[in-house]
């Protein structure tokens, strides 16, 4: 039991990160709804944030504030880094959602398979029109 | 003007000519005058280079110019040696004749897009000149591709589906072989030899094993698709959809000659004949060439269309040259070189005659030719002379080359080559003589709806010139032999 | 002053100009963007001279010493990639004015140029920085702005393409972030040079291996290595023409650079290629990319998509050169970065001209274009020849080196792959050429593109020929870059 506690549960922060990562990743892959995909993407990114933040923790260290008597404190750098990554993540979500709004306006749906269907329909309509036009010109060419 | 400048101008002149032709497109007379003048100037320039090399001395040795250095050791450079001058002479000389003929043909048949035709023709000659004077394989490859691309519009000239399909086969096979085999072979050569320069005695000796050398030789042989060694011959019959002057260009002036010329260059200046003699499996290449000669002759026997028959005859005749080069004796090599000239003038006569018959009577099949010798005596007379040259009967050029080839094969005791030469001579006779027989000894079964005589004057004139050249090669082979002795007998 | 802060200026100038674009009146935005991108190009050339004369340049941002502060570190490889980015950026921007007017909604044009400048900032930042986290930030700047750029086309499919790219791109970037985090966890540093040193002590740990895997996969998504390429054809097809040209010529190149940097500088050759499996996997994937990409290009009916698939194949050549792991191969890979930027730039710009006149880039639209738009089509043909690798064009040079590298290794089948790839390229380029030159259209009138679009197209096309004949500059840079990368190799 000891090894289980020592090797597995002591690294629970990593387990949480991996768990979240997989949930997010799976959501992105499996869902056809674009908003759900963005949510998945967010969870995916958040897991990385947690990974970074927990990396910076030093066992027994206090908050990284310089004060007398404190010699052991957590590494602040990952926290600062992840602040940047969070900003990036927010920007990505915002842009993704903005695109989804525009897609909804243009297509009337945000389901990927429906969008594909709409595009295919239009393509085939275009081909039909082109064919019809060609037939017409052919008939015009041949003398009656 | 120095010979060096003349050599560089041979590349520039056809290009400028092409540009001027494009500009004069609106005035047909001016356009064709430009074509003829350009051809004449080009021929004059090649003669300049020729005399410089023939006289020898310092100027001949210095006929080398480096235009660009692309990568260290990889240059675009030109030089002249007897073999290249011979090819340049053939191409530029026959360009004049072909231009005269084209003018008659294109006008009489009211072809479309004539300006495009003359421009592409000039660019093709530019490519041929580049191939002739290339100082290394890379330069040669570059111009080889120029030649391929510039002849595509010529082959597709008619613009209908059949022409386009034929042209696509033409381009597809030539590009695929050159990129798929020629280029890798070149790369391999560069990798083992560290250079691509044409050098007397070759650059590969001692740098590549026997199996490697054989493989490389085969890669070159098939990679140079223009030499039409079987099974890379399909493009030639496919390209028969082109107008006759184009066929003449393909078969006699530039394209196929560029192919066999490249193979000759590779064998003599890349491998070196001495080195190849030590490669036992080199014989495989000889067998393939021999097979091509016989197989193509048999196929020619079965053709009913004149031009297709001539196309298969070309395939077989090209392999004569390849075979003779690969016999690797000086005499056979001489035969190969003379055959480049002899075949060029004879085959161009045959195509001109076929074109003249088509222009005058719209006949394209052999069985329609009954009694045509009486309606078109000059054309058919020239046809007969050229056909005799193909068979190898004196007093024609074909006899001289075949003589040297046989002598060369004896030097080497290659009985296979002798057998092939004999057999193919019989086959050549078997498909050419019936045509002549029909033309002179059969009566017309039905009178043509419109009685006709000879084709337009420019065409007949061109035919007479080339037929005369066919005879001339026989009578004047001495200087030719002396000139080319340098290639095979060392520097 | 300028010379001292040259490297920082390269990033700061476009970064500051981007918001300015939005603040200024709309008609100024194009002018400002043009001025800035040419200025950046000029500065890049200056930087190139400095690198040439002084060797590796190191700039400490804000005066903080590395490894604590952010360091910008420029050697021959960065300089070459920066030259590609800035050069293409400068050449395409004069072209953008009319093309953008035709393809982007009018009220968006200021935003378009702002996003363009941000993309330029991001791409230059990635190339110049010597700090792995900074690299991630710049990667995201360039990615976010390129999502915006792609979505700007009037056609609604551009939105979906941009969205798909966003999802894929974010996953790729996050993978990189994870990898960087793991490396940081093991070494406590983010500076590339410092990382390279410290990684040697801990290189056998599983964490480092995991980080390596994350970084390689993340970079592979960004550079569209087969089979992670599927976002690319859509993105390039539906993006505005200028954006296709700009991104095809620069963004994937920068991503390849990121992979090169991590594999060779940060991890080091010995670590990266310790297992033969990784090398053979890379070779396998790149061979698959060459063959599948080229084969898929043949069956496309949209020429832009055709070129996008051809890019998949060309990236295969680059990775192949990388994976051959000898000096010639790396030279080929870096040369191909440069040459491929030239050819794809020229091809996409030529297509943009056609899109401007015909409104679409389906292959049937090109009928008779050889006569109607002779200069544009000539540029397309030159770009196509270069793509095939015909001697006399830039494409030949990189393929030549690649083949020599394969020869040196003695891996014959790879030569065959290169040859087959070239032959397939002949087929797909020829399809376009045949339609354009040998099929007649009903409308025979001339409709050549306006001069401001024609000149950049022609410049890039001629550059393909120029750098196919005079190879000194790219060869010198690529050769020194390859030597640097393999410097630690045995």
Key features of this structure:
heterotrimer; A: 144 residues; mainly alpha; Helix Hairpins; 2 domains; 5 helices; 76% helix; disordered C terminus; B: 491 residues; two-stranded antiparallel ribbon; globular
Quick overview:
Chain B is mainly α and 491 residues long. Chain B has helices spanning 3-23, 28-55, 57-61, 82-108, 114-133, 137-155, 161-193, 210-223, 235-238, 244-253, 255-271, 273-277, 283-301, 306-327, 330-361, 372-375, 377-391, 397-411, 415-441, 457-475, 477-488, and strands at residues 64-71, 74-79. Chain C has helices spanning 6-23, 26-54, 76-103, 109-128, 132-151, 157-187, 192-202, 206-222, 231-238, 241-266, 269-272, 276-298, 303-324, 327-358, 369-372, 374-388, 394-409, 412-438, 451-469, 472-485; strands at residues 57-60, 71-74.
Topology:
The complex is a heterotrimer of chains A (144), B (491) and C (490).
Chain A: H1 2-8, H2 12-30, H3 34-56, H4 77-107, H5 112-141
Helix pairs in contact in A: 2-3, 3-4
Chain B: H1 3-23, H2 28-55, H3 57-61, E1 64-71, E2 74-79, H4 82-108, H5 114-133, H6 137-155, H7 161-193, H8 210-223, H9 235-238, H10 244-253, H11 255-271, H12 273-277, H13 283-301, H14 306-327, H15 330-361, H16 372-375, H17 377-391, H18 397-411, H19 415-441, H20 457-475, H21 477-488
Antiparallel strand pairs in B: 1-2
Helix pairs in contact in B: 1-2, 1-5, 2-4, 4-5, 4-10, 4-15, 4-20, 5-6, 5-11, 6-7, 6-11, 7-8, 8-11, 10-15, 11-14, 11-15, 13-14, 13-19, 14-15, 14-19, 15-17, 15-18, 15-20, 15-21, 17-19, 17-20, 18-19, 18-20
Chain C: H1 6-23, H2 26-54, E1 57-60, E2 71-74, H3 76-103, H4 109-128, H5 132-151, H6 157-187, H7 192-202, H8 206-222, H9 231-238, H10 241-266, H11 269-272, H12 276-298, H13 303-324, H14 327-358, H15 369-372, H16 374-388, H17 394-409, H18 412-438, H19 451-469, H20 472-485
Helix pairs in contact in C: 1-2, 1-4, 2-3, 2-4, 3-4, 3-10, 3-14, 3-19, 3-20, 4-5, 4-10, 5-6, 5-10, 6-7, 6-8, 6-9, 8-10, 9-10, 9-13, 10-13, 10-14, 12-13, 12-18, 13-14, 13-17, 13-18, 14-16, 14-17, 14-19, 14-20, 16-18, 16-19, 17-18, 17-19
């Amino acid at each position: 039991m000891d090894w289980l506690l020592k090797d597995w549960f002591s690294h629970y922060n990593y387990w949480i990160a991996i768990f979240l990562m997989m949930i997010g990743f799976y959501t992105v892959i499996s869902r056809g709804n674009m908003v759900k995909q963005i949510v998945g993407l967010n969870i995916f990114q958040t897991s990385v944030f947690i990974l970074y933040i927990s990396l910076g923790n030093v066992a027994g260290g206090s908050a990284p504030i310089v004060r007398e008597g404190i010699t052991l404190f957590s590494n602040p750098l990952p926290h600062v880094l992840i602040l940047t990554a969070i900003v990036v993540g927010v920007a990505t979500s915002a842009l993704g959602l903005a695109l989804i709004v525009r897609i909804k306006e243009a297509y009337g749906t945000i389901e990927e398979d429906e969008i594909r269907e709409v595009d295919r329909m239009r393509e085939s309509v275009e081909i039909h029109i082109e064919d019809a036009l060609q037939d017409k010109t052919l008939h015009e060419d041949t003398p009656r | 003007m120095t010979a060096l400048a003349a050599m560089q101008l041979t590349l520039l002149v056809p290009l400028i000519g092409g540009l001027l032709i494009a500009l004069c497109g609106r005035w047909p007379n001016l356009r064709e005058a430009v074509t003829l003048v350009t051809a004449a100037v080009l021929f004059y320039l090649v003669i300049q280079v020729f005399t410089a090399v023939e006289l020898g001395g310092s100027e001949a040795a210095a006929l080398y110019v480096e235009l660009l250095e692309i990568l260290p050791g990889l240059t675009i450079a030109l030089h002249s040696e007897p073999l290249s001058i011979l090819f340049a002479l053939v191409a530029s000389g026959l360009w004049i004749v072909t231009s005269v003929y084209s003018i008659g043909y294109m006008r009489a048949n009211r072809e479309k897009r004539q300006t495009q035709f003359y421009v592409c023709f000039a660019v093709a000659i530019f490519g041929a000149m580049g191939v002739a004077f290339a100082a290394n394989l890379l330069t040669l490859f570059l111009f080889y591709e120029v030649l391929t691309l510039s002849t595509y519009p010529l082959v597709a000239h008619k613009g209908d589906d059949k022409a386009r399909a034929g042209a696509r086969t033409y381009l597809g096979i030539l590009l695929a072989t050159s990129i798929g085999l020629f280029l890798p072979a070149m790369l391999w050569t560069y990798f083992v030899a560290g250079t691509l320069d044409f050098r007397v005695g070759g650059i590969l000796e001692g740098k590549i094993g026997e199996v490697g050398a054989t493989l490389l030789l085969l890669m070159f042989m098939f990679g140079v698709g223009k030499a039409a060694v079987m099974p890379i011959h399909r493009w030639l019959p496919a390209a028969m959809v082109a107008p006759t002057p184009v066929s003449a260009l393909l078969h006699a002036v530039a394209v196929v000659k560029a192919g066999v010329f490249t193979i000759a260059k590779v064998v003599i200046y890349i491998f070196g004949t001495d080195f190849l003699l030590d490669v036992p499996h080199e014989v495989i290449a000889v067998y393939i060439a021999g097979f091509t000669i016989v197989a193509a002759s048999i196929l020619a026997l079965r053709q009913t269309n004149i031009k297709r028959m001539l196309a298969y005859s070309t395939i077989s005749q090209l392999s004569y040259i390849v075979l003779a080069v690969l016999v690797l004796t000086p005499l056979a090599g001489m035969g190969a070189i003379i055959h480049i000239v002899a075949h060029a003038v004879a085959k161009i006569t045959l195509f001109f005659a076929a074109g003249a018959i088509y222009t005058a009577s719209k006949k394209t099949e052999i069985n329609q030719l009954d009694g045509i010798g009486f309606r078109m005596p000059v054309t058919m007379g020239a046809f007969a002379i050229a056909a005799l040259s193909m068979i190898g009967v004196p007093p024609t050029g074909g006899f001289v080359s075949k003589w040297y080839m046989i002598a060369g094969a004896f030097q080497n005791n290659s009985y296979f080559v002798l057998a092939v030469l004999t057999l193919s001579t019989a086959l050549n006779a078997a498909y050419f003589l019936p045509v002549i027989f029909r033309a002179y000894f059969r009566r017309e079964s039905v009178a043509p709806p419109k009685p006709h005589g000879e084709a337009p004057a420019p065409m007949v004139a061109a035919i007479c010139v080339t037929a005369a050249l066919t005879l001339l090669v026989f009578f004047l082979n001495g200087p030719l032999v002396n000139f080319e002795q340098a290639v095979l007998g060392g520097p | 002053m300028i010379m001292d802060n040259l490297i920082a200026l390269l990033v700061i100038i476009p970064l500051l100009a981007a918001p300015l674009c939005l603040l200024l009146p709309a008609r100024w935005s194009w002018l400002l963007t043009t001025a800035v991108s040419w200025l950046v190009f000029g500065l890049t050339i200056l930087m190139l001279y400095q690198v040439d004369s002084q060797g590796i340049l190191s700039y400490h941002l804000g005066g903080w010493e590395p490894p604590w502060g952010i360091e910008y570190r420029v050697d021959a490889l960065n300089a070459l990639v920066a030259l590609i980015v800035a050069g293409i950026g400068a050449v395409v921007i004069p072209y953008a004015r009319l093309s953008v007017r035709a393809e982007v909604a009018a009220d968006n044009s200021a935003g378009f140029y702002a996003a363009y400048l941000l993309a330029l900032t991001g791409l230059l930042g990635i190339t110049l920085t010597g700090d792995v986290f900074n690299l991630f930030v710049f990667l995201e700047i360039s990615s976010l702005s390129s999502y915006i750029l792609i979505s700007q086309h009037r056609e609604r499919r551009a939105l979906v393409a941009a969205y798909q790219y966003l999802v894929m791109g974010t996953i790729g970037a996050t993978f990189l972030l994870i990898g960087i985090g793991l490396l940081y966890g093991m070494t406590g540093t983010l500076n590339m040079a410092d990382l390279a040193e410290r990684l040697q002590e801990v290189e056998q740990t599983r964490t480092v291996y995991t980080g390596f895997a994350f970084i390689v996969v993340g970079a592979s998504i960004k550079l569209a290595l087969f089979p992670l390429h599927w976002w690319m054809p859509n993105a390039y097809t539906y993006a505005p023409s200028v954006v296709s040209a700009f991104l095809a010529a620069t963004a994937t190149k920068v991503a390849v650079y990121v992979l090169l940097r991590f594999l060779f500088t940060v991890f080091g050759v010995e670590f990266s290629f310790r297992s033969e499996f990784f090398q053979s996997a890379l070779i396998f994937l790149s061979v698959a990319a060459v063959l599948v990409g080229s084969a898929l290009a043949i069956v496309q009916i949209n020429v832009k998509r055709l070129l996008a698939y051809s890019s998949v194949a060309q990236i295969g050549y680059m990775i192949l050169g990388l994976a051959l792991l000898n000096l010639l191969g790396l030279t080929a890979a870096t040369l191909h970065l440069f040459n491929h930027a030239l050819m794809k730039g020229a091809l996409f710009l030529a297509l943009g001209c056609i899109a401007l006149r015909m409104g679409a880039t389906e292959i049937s639209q090109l009928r008779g274009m050889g006569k109607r738009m002779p200069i544009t089509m000539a540029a397309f043909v030159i770009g196509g020849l270069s793509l095939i690798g015909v001697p006399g064009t830039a494409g030949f040079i990189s393929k030549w080196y690649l083949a020599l590298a394969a020869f040196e290794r003695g891996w014959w089948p790879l030569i065959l792959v290169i040859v087959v790839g070239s032959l397939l390229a002949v087929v797909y380029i020829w399809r376009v050429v045949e339609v354009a030159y040998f099929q007649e259209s009903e409308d025979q009138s001339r409709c050549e593109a306006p001069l401001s679009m024609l000149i950049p197209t022609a410049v890039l096309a001629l550059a393909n020929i120029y750098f196919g004949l005079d190879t000194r500059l790219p060869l010198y840079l690529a050769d020194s870059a390859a030597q640097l990368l393999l410097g630690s190799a045995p």
